[in-house]
Amino acid sequence: PRSANQIFKTLALLWNSEGRERPDVLTTGAGVPVGDKLNLMTAGPRGPLLVQDVVFTDEMAHFDRERIPERVVHAKGAGAFGYFEVTHDITRYCKAKVFEHVGKTTPIAIRFSTVAGESGSADTVRDPRGFAVKFYTDEGNWDLTGNNTPIFFIRDALLFPSFIHSQKRNPQTHLKDPDMVWDFWSLRPESLHQVSFLFSDRGIPDGHRHMNGYGSHTFKLVNAQGQSVYCKFHYKTDQGIKNLPVEEADRLASTDPDYSIRDLYNAISNGNFPSWTFYIQVMTFEQAENWQWNPFDLTKVWPHKDFPLIPVGRLVLNRNPVNYFAEVEQLAFDPSNMPPGIEPSPDKMLQGRLFSYPDTHRHRLGANYLQLPVNCPYRTHVANYQRDGPMCMFDNQGGAPNYFPNSFSAPDTQPRFIESKCKVSPDVARYNSADDDNVTQVRTFFTEVLNEAERERLCQNMAGHMKGAQLFIQKRLCKHSWGKKRLIFRSFRWIYVIIYFIFLQVQNLMAVHPDYGTRVQTLLDKYNTEGKKNTVHVYTRGGASAVAAASKM
């Protein structure tokens, strides 16, 4: 029989004879050529492994470290690359170079994602979708970290960790827990708007190509004359809105859990490039001062009849990632990355994200994550006084001074890039925003945005999910009178607790619209009388918990 070397030579000849390129020489991570990657180096054919087998140790040591922490939220995602093209002039509002003239194009990266699931979860679950856009502009990267909804569950960033915990797994059972989900939502009535959107048809979009995107937060635009307005960003799908029926979503979750990733990748591979039309809404400072709602409240929309959409451009995706880990898993968005002309507003959720996003990237990817090719602001020159740190990938800015100020022509500030001024006059305090009209816009959504068939599906979807929660949580959400009956003015010292609970019960589905609460409660009554639910509740109202149980062990 022929030797292995002869076989390899024959295969190489066949490879080259068919016009293919000669394969690269296999190497270790240090670039040292490898002669055999199929067999360990041992003391005899049955002997033990030798420590000097660096081919093995190099391979295994890297394998042991090839996973990085997954995102705490938005872990499951898809990404693609393309460009943003300006189609309409908005320089009267914004001086950012990304908008400087009609026809200008800017490279972009977009990552779509679910929110609560892990990296291996199904794409077709009922969950908000992340829709984050990175613009590689001439003045640094601009990251617009949005969702497929114009609103969110909470308006105060201090609640974000608890909100996410409620959507994740129970700390004892490691199961998704309807008690946790609905307990939080029912105790925070500002979530009603987003919850209603989530359980409507748009709660399960048909892939990533058929959904809209929103910057969601309120931002500030500044023009070349220093004049400012508030702004919201929208990107409407050019493919048309399509949503999945519940039954089809459930089927795909078991037969094709990567449905949305596959759909996006295949469309781009086949030259069917998805696109979105980019719009802004604009609100003057005077309008913001006199508007009936807080313009920085993330649980509310700006009605289009009052603040019409202004067309700006198009987002087009025309390239799939070459390597998923390098270009999608390591892709990091940071809402504090804003070029001159785009600034944050007092939006409390946005303000919180300005810190939390870069902080989590430094944990997940390292202090020098902005040097990774997919995150690098490659269309501008980075010059600062940040040095060293793990995985410094370039020349570390050479021998330039690493302190400021200095006398040696190192990078200096430019006054024309100073942020715009804003007035702040109120007292510093922790302001309670829980009672900022949590029902009016939800009522409009239920009665005017949805048609009758959509309202019915919303109630069915909501009741179908809520039926796993304990009865007192169901009643809290559906019946505004329950809280008043439950608590009585026993003594003066309880008055604040009583008022608080009455408030909670009023701000719910019945308060939005009697038909809304009645429909959901009727469906829940039907589910609850059909038989005992196959659910173990590890939390009880009396205060017993997994922690208490564990303390007795």
TrEMBL record:
One annotated Gene Ontology cellular component of this protein: peroxisomal matrix
Active site: residue positions: 74, 147
Segments traversing the membrane: 494-513
Enzyme class: oxidoreductase
Domain Catalase core as annotated: residue spans: 27-412
Domain of life: Eukaryota
Localization per Swiss-Prot or TrEMBL: Peroxisome matrix
Family: Belongs to the catalase family.
Name under which the protein is recorded: Catalase
